[in-house]
Amino acid sequence: MKKHAVSSAPLDLIWGAAEIAQLIGRSERAVFGMLENGELPAKKVSGRWVIERSKLIAFFMGETA
């Protein structure tokens, strides 16, 4: 049986399209579209979008490189 390593570092999660929109400087409506189309590395948890801040930053930094 393979064990998965679990980091003890706290997650910096951003909850909800409105918060994500504020962070990336887009409208909430635009962010909903991006989330529904799978354009952002986010997941839906109990009906609410959530994304890890470091993954969101890495996603945008990767696009500019």
User: Termini separation (Å)?
Assistant: 39 Å
The major sheet is characterized as: 3 strands, antiparallel
Count of individual helical segments: 3
Residue share in β-strands: 15-25%
Which regions have little confidence, pLDDT < 50, spanning 5+ residues? none
Order of helices and strands: EHHEEH
Radius of gyration: 13 Å
Please tally the β strands and state the result: 3
Number of domains: 1
**Overall mean pLDDT score?**
88
Give a description of the structure.
Residues 18-60 form the Helix-turn-helix domain. InterPro entries: HTH_17. This is Helix-turn-helix domain-containing protein. There is one protein chain. This protein is an alpha+beta fold. The chain has one domain (13-64). Helix content is 45%, strand content 17%. The chain contains three helices and three strands, in the order βααββα. It has helices at residues 17-24, 28-36, 53-64, and strands at 13-15, 43-45, 48-52. The chain has a three-stranded antiparallel sheet. Strand 2 (43-45) and strand 3 form a beta hairpin. Helix 1 crosses helix 2. It is globular and about 45 Å long.
In short:
This protein is an alpha+beta fold. It has helices at residues 17-24, 28-36, 53-64, and strands at residues 13-15, 43-45, 48-52.
Task: Produce the secondary structure layout.
Blueprint: E1 13-15, H1 17-24, H2 28-36, E2 43-45, E3 48-52, H3 53-64
Antiparallel strand pairs: 1-3, 2-3
Any key phrases for this structure?
alpha+beta; 3-stranded antiparallel beta sheet; 3 strands; 45% helix; Helix-turn-helix domain-containing protein; HTH_17
